[in-house]
């Protein structure tokens, strides 16, 4: 009963997270596109950056952006903040339900680091806080005047963090935590920088003071960071279904690929919104395609997994020892009342029917058994892999 209750809670929290994320990503992409579509018209006042005309849902909209703020506080002002806050809160709730509640199976891998559950959870939550302070310090450093260099340093730091997470957490959790660290940076930008800066401008307007432009400029820089980091985060959040990515022995290299691909694709859209043409628009998609192909090639390579002939009895012994306790018509594992996903390995035809999933989850990655609870060794994974690649013969 507890397993069913946990699954329903997980489903509802995931649903809420997706709904919130759609709202945040949608508004973020819209306003970046709006900014880039602004044009300075002839005769426009000096306090205006530009304006743009848009049509949607049968109506016309005329948007104008001020360089700093209008002369007087408008009667009604819409704030865009809860999309970000609710996305982070539901995301953390989902991580708690999935990785903290099920820490022994999903957060901890005993073959990587046999951590006590409280220690693993503390490391997880602490890494989110540490990630924000390191990023915020970088944004306030002298590199803030050289955005490209700062972003390069941030890239190296995130790839290093991906490697570090892989030294303490399960492969699935390590990959997910990079996404969570980036998402915390992004939401922290909204909560601790963008909105407070906007409030300073609003308070100046209310008091009859002329707001300083620097607050808007700082907020704009953080918003741009969020824009370029969004696509990598989205992929990392949904990657738990694809062990060929997070389960690779060098998954931190794949993180490096994804960060670049996501930023390059986002850059093309940003340039498109600006109405740019020519060479500046021609390199992004070819580069992203080459990187994607390179990532797929790299993910297919596994060190030290040479083909070998395996006795069927030896492979079946591995399945019986490490897989069948959960994946059976009547599981013997205390955490399951029925086979997860309806996948059972009681018979050879059932094993053959799910051979590709077994190969991906238990051979090409260490995803299964969960948390390596049964202590499956590299040699046993190699044995199982050779047998499955041969067609699982009798």
UniProtKB/TrEMBL annotation:
Lineage top rank: taxon: Bacteria
Record keywords: Phosphoprotein included? no
Q: Which InterPro entries match?
A: Cyt_c-like_dom_sf, Urate_ox_N
Please give one Pfam family short name: Urate_ox_N
Residues forming the Urate oxidase N-terminal domain are: 4-297
- In its UniProt entry, the species of origin is given as Paroceanicella profunda
Keywords from the named record: Membrane, Plasmid, Transmembrane, Transmembrane helix
The protein here is known as Urate hydroxylase PuuD
Segments spanning the bilayer are 12-34, 85-103, 115-135, 147-169, 175-195, 250-269, 281-298
Keyword Iron tagged: no
The entry lists its GO molecular-function terms as: electron transfer activity; heme binding
Q: What is the lineage of its organism?
A: Bacteria, Pseudomonadati, Pseudomonadota, Alphaproteobacteria, Rhodobacterales
């Amino acid at each position: 009963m507890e397993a069913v209750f946990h699954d329903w809670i997980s489903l509802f929290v995931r649903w809420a997270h997706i709904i919130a994320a759609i709202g945040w990503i949608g508004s973020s992409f819209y306003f970046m596109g709006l900014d880039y579509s602004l044009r300075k018209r002839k005769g426009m006042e000096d306090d205006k950056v530009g304006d743009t005309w848009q049509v949607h849902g049968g109506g016309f909209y005329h948007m104008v952006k001020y360089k700093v703020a209008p002369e007087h506080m408008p009667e009604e002002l819409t704030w865009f903040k809860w999309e970000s806050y609710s996305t982070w809160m539901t995301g953390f709730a989902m991580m708690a339900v999935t990785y903290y509640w099920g820490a022994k199976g999903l957060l901890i891998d005993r073959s990587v680091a046999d951590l006590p559950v409280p220690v693993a959870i503390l490391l997880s939550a602490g890494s989110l806080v540490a990630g924000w302070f390191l990023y915020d310090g970088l944004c306030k450093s002298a590199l803030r005047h050289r955005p490209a260099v700062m972003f390069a340093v941030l890239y190296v730091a995130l790839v290093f963090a991906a490697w570090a997470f892989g030294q303490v957490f399960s492969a699935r959790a390590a990959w997910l935590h990079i996404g969570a660290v980036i998402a915390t940076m992004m939401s922290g930008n909204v909560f601790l920088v963008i909105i407070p800066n906007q409030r300073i401008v609003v308070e100046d307007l209310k008091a009859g003071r002329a707001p300083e432009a620097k607050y808007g400029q700082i907020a704009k820089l953080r918003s741009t960071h969020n824009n370029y980091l969004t696509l990598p985060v989205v992929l990392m959040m949904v990657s738990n279904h694809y062990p060929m990515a997070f389960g690779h022995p060098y998954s931190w290299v794949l993180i490096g690929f994804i960060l670049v691909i996501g930023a390059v694709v986002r850059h093309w859209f940003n340039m498109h919104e600006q109405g740019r043409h020519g060479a500046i628009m021609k390199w992004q998609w070819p580069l992203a395609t080459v990187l994607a192909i390179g990532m797929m090639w790299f993910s297919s390579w596994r060190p030290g997994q040479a083909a070998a002939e395996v006795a069927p009895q030896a492979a079946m012994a591995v399945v019986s020892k490490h897989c069948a306790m959960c994946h059976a018509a009547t599981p013997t594992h205390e955490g399951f009342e029925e086979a997860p996903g309806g996948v059972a390995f009681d018979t050879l035809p059932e094993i053959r029917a799910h051979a590709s999933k077994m190969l991906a989850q238990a051979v090409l990655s260490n995803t299964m058994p969960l948390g390596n609870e049964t202590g499956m060794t590299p040699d046993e994974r190699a044995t199982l892999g050779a047998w499955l690649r041969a067609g699982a013969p009798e």
